[in-house]
Design brief:
Layout lengths: L1 H17 L4 E7 L29 E5 L7 H6 L2 H8 L5 E5 L16 H17 L3 E5 L20 H11 L3 E3 L1 H12 L8 E4 L11 E7 L1 H17 L19
Parallel strand pairs: 1-2, 1-3, 3-4, 4-5
Antiparallel strand pairs: 6-7
């Protein structure tokens, strides 16, 4: 009798485990994270590379990031509401903005610092209200060196606003800004080009005249940035850690 009960319990729990719905990670952000169109390849958003770091069937990465969006336009265009409406308890939302918010010369997307802060707080509160987990991310660095080879940041006060909101509201923070700076410096002035969309004339049919883009990533750069995000998942001890594959070390970062 005991053996029969034990067998029934095993079957029940096995069925539950087998039918478990994967955790969804929603990505809210800009072009550095977003899925790219075929005519933009080999440009690659780092969010496109994230899925492969998780064990099969455990996590679904739903990339809602869009080119050219700031926190303000992401809200205005109802992209944020689309994520909120889709959330279920136990999901995660990775939030990475700053490139377009800080672009003061682009009035269609610029978000003043105080509004940027308010928008991040709104994101955090609305994710938590659905029983999901917000993860704030500072913006990834652009490749920018001066004539002497010194690295330069272009994001102003915005990364510190993210850090401050994360600290005040006790939100997990993955500091992509500092992590990516370290990696770009590690590669150096010339070698860091291969992390970004840098093509010579005639090298790719999508860019017949070539391109020197120091913001958007090559496939290699996107993979490296995704590895930094995975590193942050481990450092923050997120519940997602148990779903990560074991082969996600930093050996390909350099």
């Amino acid at each position: 009798m005991r053996s029969l009960i034990a067998l029934c319990l095993l079957l029940v729990f096995s069925g539950i485990a087998f039918g478990r719905e994967p955790v969804t990670i929603y990505l809210a952000g800009d072009s550095t994270m977003a899925q790219k169109l075929p005519e933009k390849r080999p440009e690659t958003g780092w969010g496109e590379e994230l899925q492969k770091f998780f064990k099969e069937g455990t996590v679904v990465v739903d990339n809602r990031a869009k080119n050219g969006r700031s926190t303000r336009t992401f809200i205005k265009e109802k992209l944020w509401q689309g994520i909120v409406d889709s959330l279920k308890k136990g999901d995660y939302v990775f939030i990475e903005f700053g490139h377009n918010d800080s672009s003061k010369e682009k009035t269609d997307r610029y978000t003043p610092p105080e509004d940027y802060r308010r928008n991040l707080i709104r994101f955090v509160n609305e994710v938590r209200a659905k029983g999901a987990t917000p993860v704030l991310m500072t913006p990834v660095m652009r490749r920018r060196f001066d004539k002497e080879g010194n690295f330069q940041d272009s994001h102003g006060a915005y990364p510190d606003i993210v850090r401050a909101v994360a600290a005040e509201y006790k939100v997990a923070l993955i500091d992509m800004h500092r992590k990516s700076e370290q990696v770009i410096k590690q590669y150096g002035v010339e070698e860091s080009r291969k992390l970004f969309l840098q093509l010579k004339p005639g090298e790719n049919s999508n860019y017949p005249k070539g391109i020197e883009d120091n913001t958007h990533f090559s496939p290699l750069g996107a993979e490296v940035m995704a590895k930094l995000a995975v590193e942050g998942i481990r450092e923050q001890k997120l519940g997602l850690v148990k779903y990560l594959k074991k082969s996600d070390n930093r050996e390909t970062l350099t």
